[in-house]
Amino acid sequence: MDKEVVISIKGIQKYEGALPDVIELVTAGRLARDGESYTLSYQESELTGLEGTLTTIQVDGGQVTLMRVGEFNSQLVFQEGRRHLSVYNTPYGAMSVGVHTRHLLTQLSDQGGDIEVDYSIEVDHALAGRNIFRINVKEAEAGLGSLKQ
Asked: HEC string of 42-71?
C-alpha cells in the first residue's frame, strides 16, 4: 500500500523561561505500509527552514524514527520511556543529541491516523527543552491532481 496523503503537523517547543514556540504545517506527502510498519514522507518547505530536505517518519510498533535527508541529515528515534542518542548535523557542525520520549501514541491505518510524541531533548548532555509534535494523516481527496513530491 502506497498512497498520497495530506499531513497536518503541529510542533510545540518549550524552553526554560520562554514562551512556547508553536509551528503548524499542512503539506502533501505519501503513506506506505510494509507489513505492520508504516512510512510517512514529505518534502520540507522554506517555511520550516529545511527546503530541499526529505523527511521520513517510520512507525514500527512502539518505535517512531524521524529521518531527514538533505543539506543536513539527522535521525531521531522515539520509544516511550527510553532515551536514544544520535548525531544531529547542523550548519554549525555535528552535535550529540539525546532524546528521552515521555509519551508516544501511534494510531495509523491504511486510511491515515495520528502520531503524537512528547519528548525532552538534550544537546551535548545538557537539557535543551521539551518538544511535542502531533501529526494527523488523511487520504488526499481524489480529483485534486497529483501531489508529486
From this structure: EECCHHHCCCCCEEEEEEECCEEEEEEECC
